[in-house]
Design brief:
Blueprint (H helix, E strand, L loop, with lengths): L5 E7 L2 E6 L10 H16 L5 E5 L4 E3 L4 H6 L5 H7 L5 E5 L2 E3 L1 H8 L2 E5 L3 E3 L13 H9 L1 H9 L3 E3 H6 L5 E3 L4 H13 L3 H13 L5 H16 L2 H11 L10
Parallel strand pairs: 2-3, 3-5, 4-6, 5-7, 6-8, 7-10
Antiparallel strand pairs: 1-2, 8-9
Helix pairs in contact: 1-3, 5-6, 9-10
Amino acid sequence: MSDAIVVTERPHEHVALVRLNRPKVFNALSNGVIEALARTLEELDADGVTRAVVITGDERAFAAGADIAEFAADGPRLDEWDRLWVTGLPTVAAVRGLALGGGLELAMSCDLMVVADDARLGQPEVNLGVMPGAGGTQRLTRAVGKTLAMEMVLLGRELSGREAEAHGLANRAVPPERVLPVALDLAKALAAKAPLAVRAAKRAIGRAFEDSLHAGLLDERRAFFALLATDDAREGVDAFLNKRKPAWQGR
């Protein structure tokens, strides 16, 4: 494995696999890791080839949380997290082992999540006298509801991967050895779809949590009509009518 703290692989033409690579500290999220991850996503978003991204760690940890030593000395640069949230690419978190604190916040910032059934997911910041600061209170509550979010944030309750699936936090809970293959299969399925449509739909779903229903419906309608004017939409209709597989061009 490279000495880089974030390593990118290309398991499929249109899919990138991005690994957090600090195994000695359970992939703790230093400011450098977040900056490197943000830069990687920006480069993949702009390369004209990548259509889906899988983010993962290793068998012991997706990410065990913030780098506490750095946190105590310098504090986290949370503005770097903003760069993670604006990528237009669909992202899949592949979670084994620990996903705690910032690790769970990173996984929740992805569009889909595949977890090992024995993974441990939680927001234990209260045990350090602080609270989640990179989306934990907001995304977790939207995913699992107020009651369970209160337990996880106020009491530090952890969920197993199987519980995370049952409560709607994860899309799939599978045996540990199946996490990455399943995540890559989902990414390949995303990459096979019309890329402009996937980006627009991702953005519209995200807006559903931020706008009123009326504003969200108007935004959805604008995106729908914009997509109708694309070459991909014409290709999709023609492929359907002629019973063939579409060849998406992303324009």
